[in-house]
């Protein structure tokens, strides 16, 4: 071999080594970037398997206002306001579509104790305004001031997939007193059957112990309690200090959302408390026949630009 051949081999070998180093460095940078976007996660996060074939819906706004009121967004008037989805189509699922429409109508017509209070929404709104007029008349007879009444209900679509729907129902009511009352509840539906989904449907058998442990840790983090804090020593009113999940939960694209309403855990001053559990923390106990999951894929970005993982 002449000296030029030897030099060529050396140059080629050096180029291969540099390429390998560069490739390794690139992979390390990408991995570091991905890890930099996660908090408290030892693996890539998961999401519901995405599919663009979702149902179509529009938002309907209905309201009644006191005489001379200009707009339903006014703060100083008596009003009753409803905002809710109207599902236009659910391909090849007419029976399920009718069932879901009935469930939404029932939500709109329920009174404070969950009973159907009117035959339709027009009657419900008229009833509210008539009750206010009667109340105002009685107060005037005793020369007492009568404040405005307000009832607002908003139903939002949180999750919209071919097989799952999650609705958020938020109510605000003021008919006198120190403050308005608010409630938030959720309705999670299986669009294949029209049935309401419970936690038992979403998880495998004997899931409770693991879910409670993970949820208690998430709750304590949310309210800034140390992990080893005994709940009986706090101002949160858990029976005998044992953590309990709220009945309110919603299904998100990357995790479950749990919600305590005011008064659920103590006095009104505590307010509402919500926390989220990402799917990667509970993946081992999830019923994937209902919640079909896939890893979330990230493009490499600078760790400095993203320091936490947000999920729905």
From TrEMBL:
Residues 200-280 form the DUF3298 domain. PROSITE patterns: PROKAR_LIPOPROTEIN. Gene3D superfamilies: Fervidobacterium nodosum Rt17-B1 like (3.30.565.40), Heat-shock cognate protein, ATPase (3.90.640.20). It holds the Pfam family DUF3298. InterPro entries: DUF3298, PdaC, PdaC/RsiV-like_sf. Residues 73-182 form the Deacetylase PdaC domain. Signal peptide: none annotated. This is DUF3298 and DUF4163 domain-containing protein. It comes from Aureispira anguillae.
